[in-house]
Amino acid sequence: METAPKPGRDVPPKKDKLQTKRKKPRRYWEEETVPTTDGASPGPPCNKKNRELRPQRPKNAHILKKSRISKQPQVPKKPREWKNPESQRSLSGAGLGSSPLPRSKAKTRSRLEVAEAEEEETSIKAARSELLLAEEPGFLEGEDGEDTAKICQADIVEAVDIASAAKHFDLNLRQFGPYRLNYSRTGRHLAFGGRRGHVAALDWVTKKLMCEINVMEAVRDIRFLHSEALLAVAQNRWLHIYDNQGIELHCIRRCDRVTRLEFLPFHFLLATASETGFLTYLDVSVGKIVAALNARAGRLDVMSQNPYNAVIHLGHSNGTVSLWSPAMKEPLAKILCHRGGVRAVAVDSTGTYMATSGLDHQLKIFDLRGTYQPLSTRTLPHGAGHLAFSQRGLLVAGMGDVVNIWAGQGKGSPPSLEQPYLTHRLSGPVHGLQFCPFEDVLGVGHSGGVTSMLVPGAGEPNFDGLESNPYRSRKQRQEWEVKALLEKVPAELICLDPRALAEVDVISLEQGKKERIERLGYDPEAKAPFQPKPKQKGRSSTASLVKRKRKVMDEEHRDKVRQSLQLQQQQQQKEAKAKSTGARPSALDRFVR
Amino acid sequence: MKVKMLSRNPDNYVRETKLDLQRVPRNYDPTLHPFEVPREYVRALNATKLERVFAKPFLASLDGHRDGVNCLAKHPKNLATILSGACDGEVRIWNLTQRNCIRTIQAHEGFVRGICTRFCGTSFFTVGDDKTVKQWKMDGPGYGEEEEPLHTILGKTVYTGIDHHWKEAVFATCGQQVDIWDEQRTNPICSMTWGFDSISSVKFNPVETFLLGSCASDRNIVLYDMRQATPLKKVILDMRTNTICWNPMEAFIFTAANEDYNLYTFDMRALDTPVMVHMDHVSAVLDVDYSPTGKEFVSASFDKSIRIFPVDKSRSREVYHTKRMQHVICVKWTSDSKYIMCGSDEMNIRLWKANASEKLGVLTSREKAAKDYNQKLKEKFQHYPHIKRIARHRHLPKSIYSQIQEQRIMKEARRRKEVNRIKHSKPGSVPIVSEKKKHIVAVVK
To answer: Which of A476, A486, A489 lies at the smallest CB-CB distance from B38?
Structure first.
């Protein structure tokens, strides 16, 4: 900066001494004197184990059709990147905001460094807090050679403790037809609705019935809203909302002929897919319809949500799965998954994998991190009609009256489709499936009623008391409700990458810079041309001054030439590649323009 | 077959009795806390809105003066005591906690031009239009005694300002010249002049205590070293500087309140370019005072408002005004850095919070934690357009608002003319002068 301090010549010698004795404090305007060895300082010790546990870091980029892994920011390792302030935007965690960076670069840089270091430290701390987790996940292992899929529920019930054994039950409700079911977010309550109009909600752990009604109409789907006090039921004509006493609170006529329901808990949106082909988002906190999107793909009856980014996945009869957000009239992405129509879609809790099954009897697992390529495929004898992921990544498929569960290597890995982990045969064809959150339990709705199955290792053992607490009291629930409503995420923020908001908005930054230059008539940040300082004691002749100036200019020129050469080379390589893949040159090519 | 099911003991998760606190187990696994960024953004938005809702900075108005308040002084040892001098020669001492006047002195005939306290807090000095310097005891007279100054110095010319040395029994006055006085003597130790114009204020440097700065009506700011007989250097600006204030934490830095609506922060070692030009006022700036942290300062203006500027920003972060407040003559930031006092034309002294939305009183630990968390969130998301708009919005009186618009148009026109001139002349023949350099006429040593 131009205001770099010069040592005052007028200051009396006494004071001068004083100054030299004291260590010279660094002032905020002394930007030139700050040593530019930003990257040279070694980062905090990089414990590999801790690095793996960093929250959300590897989930940064959901960019279409690009390999995500190569884009991962590794800022602390690359000091070179810091030199160029424009490349700092890869620091998504620093939360710099989507507006232009402040103009003082050195200060911004140091602030960013501090933020980065802080983030590193907190992530290490958060990872370390894993020691404090009290519960261990469940598991099921066969003796050597024994196939766990052959172990039947009765054996498991016999082997486990009484409290866990009580979680296995069968509700025999044969006369009200196939059932859909839904667990509340805390995993404490269960609601189910039968095709013949039977709707019931109960605290399934204590087996206390909250309400039981008959709506005298076909029930297509049932879903808890943000808490167990509200219940959305998709009935034959309209969407109805009941409270936990079974009293009808609302009848929403704008959502008619709804086939599937999904609730986005952080946005307070109830997404409904209808027979008429509309995907409608209803904001249940204010009762307004946020968006009604026409999928233009006929009747919609396959829907699921991505819990990581609140994007709705719709399966269509032409074999595609489309991804929707209320902010866009068009789908965010369309994935061709199957030869026939799509029968079921499920997305795991980390938002990394999507399982689909189609009329072509295939079950596929897709990678959702940008590539949208199938990771594994398996052909099932009858095809799966219903799919669901558990919190720890188990995949369940309902095929006729059989339920198959596949497990992966652990949390965050895709389920391997070779060997089923568990199988179970029910008394009727499956109509609804859901793993109970925070429990090792799978709820299955079928034509013979509702079955609660034991699946060891399905549920997340350690819940977060402030997020969803199965043991919360009424007071705690009320408090949570207020807080959740206060931080309701606006529907416009739903996009493929939920961290996109934390990226620096480079486009508007550059736009602003351009506008500023236009407004001022010159570039205020342009580098001043090199002006050699005269050397001391008469050694600086004009000729040598000019020579030095020439030297610097030549250096700059050489840099430019080097860059353009590199660019040319790259282009040539690209062209060569394009040529080599193309067909052989023909004589007729000369006529091509 | 080996099997283990997830089986929690409810006793570990539910409180035993109603007198216990609820148990809240935590798990920081990011998959259990999705939408981290959007949720934090919404929280930051709410925090910013609440900050604006709770922004009620005005605390009290101290009335009692019978003429405009011309000068203010802080007690160096007592946070609750302030002193004020009025245009009718009256000096009042106030108690801020009780918000009343505890002592009234008819000190001068005509204006009280300047007031300053001694560093020990036992006495204070006033100068007035009657060409006298008077020293007063801080405590009132005993029963039956008369209110009389400790010392009175009769001068030859009018004194316009006074400031006391921060460590020694020396004070400086200004008028036709800058005089440095020993408290024990009736004649100045030395008198310093540079040019022939009246000097409006003089200020001692609180860190390098031998240094002092003054500003005169011939548009210059002069720096002196008390140990030398002659001034150090001066800088001449476009327009007159009303007063200066030294940064209490950074010895070289001072801020000048100028008639051209701007404030200039200078580094005294490089006076040819100010470190920062602070512009937001729409009329002459009359007074300036630093916060004790040295990070911010407050300025009083003729446009009936006071503004708070961060030292390193050119725009103000806060503006305070009320319907009844007229031209603000003097302003002070209290020594605990929490409050601001301003004295204005219409005889009142007003007390403001330095941080408009701050909650006064004792905070519980939860309140404090929530405040810190919200502060951090606001900081993190401050550049987002929606949040920035809410945080920056201030209601302004119509006069100031229309003046700002008008000045914006004028500035734009001037800039356009300059751009056109550059565009249509030979490249390099019209120099591009930065905003900082524009207002400096010359530096003389």
So the answer is: A489
Closest CA to B223 of B254, B196, B247: B254
Q: Is A93 on the interface with B (CB under 8 A)?
A: no
- Of A363, A427, A392, the residue nearest A140 (C-alpha): A392
ipTM score of complex = 0.85
Give per-residue burial for A381-397: e unless 16+ CB within 10 Å, then b: eebbbbbbbbbbbbbbb
Concatenated DSSP letters for A316-333?
Answer: -TTSEEEEE-TT-SS-SE
Stretch B29-35: mean pLDDT, rounded? 92
Domains and CATH numbers, chain A: 146-175+340-467 (2.130.10.10), 177-336 (2.130.10.10)
| Amino acid at site B182 | D
Q: For residues B205 and B290, what is the distance between their CA atoms, to the nearest angstrom?
A: 12
A98 Cα to chain B: minimum distance (Å): 6
Report yes or no: A491 at the B interface, CB cutoff 8 Å. Answer: no
From A412's Cα to the closest Cα of chain B, the distance in A is 10
Structural domain spans, chain B: 58-353
**Could you say which DSSP state residue A227 is in?**
S
Amino acid at B424: H
- Tell me if A280 sits within 8 A of A260, measured CB to CB: no
Q: List, in order, residues 6 or more apart from A529 with CB less than 8 Å away.
A: none
What's chain B's length in residues? 445
Kindly indicate the confidence band of residue B143, based on its pLDDT and cuts at 50, 70 and 90. confident
Q: Do B32 and A137 touch (CB under 8 A)?
A: no
Cβ within 8 Å of A, B 151-210: 208
Question: Is pTM beyond 0.95 here?
Answer: no
pLDDT of residue A12: 42
Q: Which strand (E) or helix (H) includes residue A462?
A: none
**Closest-CA distance of chain B to residue A387, Å:** 20
Q: Where are the alpha helices (DSSP H) in B334-384?
A: 365-380
**Average pLDDT score over residue span B267-283:** 95
d(CA A250, CA B137): 77
Give A 44-83 residues with CB within 8 A of chain B. 55-56
Tens digit of each residue's pLDDT (9 = 90 or more) over B60-82:
999 999 999 999 999 999 999 99
pLDDT confidence of residue A582: 60
Question: Which residue out of A10, A391, A531 would a mutagenesis test of the B interface target, given it has the greatest number of B Cβ atoms within 10 Å?
Answer: A10
In CATH terms, B58-353 corresponds, of 3.40.50.80, 2.40.10.10, 3.40.50.2000, 2.130.10.10, to 2.130.10.10
Query: Tokens for B365?
Result: 């630990």
Sheet holding A288-294, edge to edge: A258-264, A269-274, A278-283, A288-294
Does any CB of chain B come closer than 8 Å to the CB of residue A489? yes
Percent pLDDT > 90 in chain B is: 90
Q: Tokens 């024994």 — which residue?
A: A146
Over range A324-332, report the average pLDDT: 95
Shortest distance, CA B308 to any CA of chain A (angstroms): 19
